[in-house]
Amino acid sequence: MAEVPVDPIRIIERFGPHLSWMTGARLSTSVDPDRLVKTHCCFCGQQCGIQLKVRGNEVIGFEPWEEFPFNRGMLCPKGVKRYLQGSHTDRLTSALQRDRSSPSGFSSLPYADAIARVASEIARIQQAHGAGAIAVLSGASLTTEKAYLMGKFARVCLKTPFIDYNGRLCMVSAGAANKKAFGIDRTTNPWSDMVGSDVIWVAGSNVAECSPITTNYIWQAREQGAKVIVQDPRITPVARTCDLYLPVKPGRDAALFAGVLQIMIERDWLDHEFIRDYTSGFDQVAEYCREWTLSRTADVTGVPQPAIAQAAEWWGTAKTSFLFHARGIEHHSNGVQNSLATINLVLASGRIGKPKSGYGTIVGQANGQGGREHGQKCDQLPGWRDITNPEHRRYIAGVWGIDEQELPGPGVDAYELFRKIDRGEIKGLLSICFNPKVSLPDNGFVTRCLDKLEFYAAIDFFLNDTAWHDDVVLPGSLQEEDEGTVTQVEGRIIKINKAVDCPGEARQDWRIIQDIAQALGRPTGFTFTEPREIFDELRIASKGGVADYSGVTYEKVTQQLGVFWPCYSEDPKTGQPTEHQGTPRLFERGSYNPVAKGNGPFYFPDGRARFNVADYRAPVDDASEDYPIYLTTGRVVSQFLSGTQTRRIGPLVRQYAEPRIEMHPRLAAKLGIADGEWATAETRRGTITLRAQVVTTIRPDTIFIPYHWPGRKSANQLTVAAQDPISKSPQYKVCGCRVRKAEGAPPYAAILEPQQ
Amino acid sequence: MAKPDYLHFFVDPNRCIGCQACLQACTECDTHRGESMIHLEYVDRSESVQTVPVVCMHCEQPTCAEVCPADAIKRTADGVVQSARKPRCIACGNCVMACPFGVPELYEDRKIMMKCDMCYDRTSVGKKPMCATVCPSQALFFGTREQIEQLRPMSTPINTFQFGAQTITTQVHVMVPRALATRASYVDVAAAMEERPRSRAVSLKVLSGPQADGVPSETDPFAGVEV
């Protein structure tokens, strides 16, 4: 059973998180780098261009890369200090195995032995319980090459349907909505199109902390006359000076959008021509919105009536506009409906597929876009193909050189996968780039599931909290130790360049995967010698799919400083070879795509976008008499996801060391809690004790806890595992909770460092 | 080499999102690696997320240099006020007390005052200062007057500050909302400090919509929310 081998404090002592600081060559002003490597930040979906200073086999600093067009040298604090993750004392430089006789719970073993052990355990479990008893969890911070390989590895080598990825915790609601409404899943315009828009609507996105570089685009749009509308339960830094703030109650977004659309219908602020010529389904949506009167919308959403009316007027009468949203409206059991409701507003305005008018969802992870296109999702094959579509299956089986019958069918989402572990149906797990013990909701349940595994192996560069349960840990690669491509927030494919070699026995992740395939005696299709070869196969595999990368080459990406997909090798209209430069803006009038075949700009056979009735449903485990306060969760600017990397970087930890419970002074006064005092928040799943941060910048009926910490500091002890029925996104952004003043400091305070 | 005279530093606190990219990047500088010379302050975090980045303003007549008994603070010909010179500085702290903008800091362990020198190692070779290069909101901007005029039509750069009887003119400009800048061509700092405080330390420009005179309203967006 994959139980944590020793007291966690012993594991932390050996494997951290410890903090790295500027020392040695990194602190010296007399040491020059050998070279500068142009690449991108390893963290969020903005994928800012950066130059890493390299000396020997160490990254010793950074230099802004001002030529890269998206960020032109700009970086957030994570980007500035990202280089401190290299040469880290916590870095895994050899394979590990669980060893209760070792003080730290783990001991080293030779890499080859570790691979052999992983292969023999996989073989044993599959022989005894079938191929589907092994599951794979992967992640959207991997390069597209690796993400593609993980999907292929699960289906072709392991022959299991059970692969899913941590994008399930991220953008799937937006992705599902885009698929239903547009037939393609990508932000419609480059960010530069924002500047010059009349109105910018930011729905559920703490831009300043989660995608800081986007801030300058918004501010620049405002300088040029745009009105900025921000919808959020907290007055975030972009909300502070926005033109219209919509203080929405957590989980009420679909209702707000329906109410706004109803006003637009009543006042006839619609683009009738666009609706008639380029869409379908408007009448059903209009029928649904009829019940969303201004007073009802205000009652349900908590947004005052004048603010709703003002938003409708600005949005309704604008000539150009940009609407974007992020996890704030997507992380809900109603996340797809929330996203569809925003799309309805965009379609009703007709402002899409034009310069200065666009729609998009802000990608969370480094490869949140590319990682959701090429087959590491449980229901997907490369090129954004559907694993249940016979034609798609045949094509991919052909590329992979297998019989279509051999290709497994759809698997299950990442959370359901844990339920299968709980039920004993899945007995072995291989994971990479995923820390579910911190990042999944109700993570007490996730921990119990991990304990039940017969065999668990992870590929990682640091021993993250989930890997404490490992039988075997395989030492993988940091982003700067490999090359490949990722697709950033605008749909722009960019190139990650290698700066240094892996230390010790650590290996590039794709080599580890291939070594496992080899050891299993199933090497066919896993004999790539460099990422470029994987990418070249991916180009073929994606060809003809909606996410068509066939015309993309490493050279084109480097020359053009990015290529927006779809990028064809053959003109979809004529079938002739073409030197396509990519597609920066989607849905332009008169544009041709291989699905609509000239019938219209959208990716359906009739070329029309779909209005979808976006039904408001109250959140699961909503605030109630017993749990009267809304709990919402999110990020802080100096930390990233489960903190595996950023909680090891000293300057970033110093900026925001430990989670706090953010609450309004009126709530704090009622509860008798002062700023800085210990407070306990409790939901139906668990409790957490943290210091209170008392601020007027949050709804008085809501508390906020950032989610980057593990164990007793983890916000996901509290969150609810309710999922959207379509996207399976968990409802991280709201659940009922109660708060009280804590009796005193929690036991962890005396034992753990802030980042641990 | 000198800082090109057509390039200027502009600070626009209105844009600041408090992300601290500037502080983190400042510690990467080749002349004071490991230490940040830029300050970032919350005005009052309990009331607002408003933050203010503070760089050295590089005064035409630097008060810090004027009060220095050791003549350790030099202003270059291109107008950049340097950190204290090592053999001269006696770490008396006069400059720290005297600077009207609160910029210099005394490093007791090294017995020296250090402060922002506008990344002279970068600006003197035609690069932008580190903080202004990375700033994701471009609250810190380094460029030409033409660029700032074109990019920031809503505000005006001001570099004259009145502290009681003392008028200070600086190399660094602060962006002031255009509506306010038409009233006076300088910022009266002392008068602003004596202004009757508002009910909220930082106002929220929200439900009531934009104000004609550029003065934000004080509407509480959560007034109707029951606890």
Structure description:
The complex is a heterodimer of chains A (756) and B (227). In chain A, helix 3 (111-129) crosses helix 20 and helix 9 (253-266) packs antiparallel against helix 12. In chain A, 29% of the residues lie in helices and 18% in strands. The model of chain A has no long low-confidence stretch (mean pLDDT 97). In chain A, the strands form 8 sheets. In chain A, strands 5-4-18-17-16-6-7 form a 7-stranded mixed sheet, sandwiched between helices. By secondary structure, chain A is an alpha/beta fold. Chain A folds into 4 domains: 21-85, Phosphorylase Kinase, domain 1; 95-170 and 368-500 and 513-542, Rossmann fold (3-Layer(aba) Sandwich); 172-361, 3-Layer(aba) Sandwich (Dimethylsulfoxide Reductase, domain 2), CATH 3.40.228; 629-750, Barwin-like endoglucanases (Beta Barrel), CATH 2.40.40. Chain B is of the alpha/beta class and 227 residues long. Chain B has a domain at 8-61 and 119-187: Alpha-Beta Plaits, CATH 3.30.70. Chain B has helices spanning 21-26, 63-67, 94-98, 120-123, 130-134, 145-151, 178-181, 189-194; strands spanning 8-11, 39-42, 51-54, 105-107, 112-114, 140-143, 155-163, 166-177, 187-188. In chain B, the strands form 3 sheets. A 5-stranded mixed sheet of chain B has the order 6-1-8-7-9. A two-stranded antiparallel sheet of chain B has the order 2-3. In chain B, strands 4-5 form a two-stranded antiparallel ribbon. In chain B, a hairpin with a 4-residue loop joins strand 4 and strand 5 (112-114). The longest helix of chain B has 7 residues, at 145-151. Chain B is globular and about 60 Å long. The relative contact order of chain B is 0.19. At the A-B interface, strand 3, helix 2, helix 7, helix 8 and helix 13 of A face helix 1 and helix 5 of B.
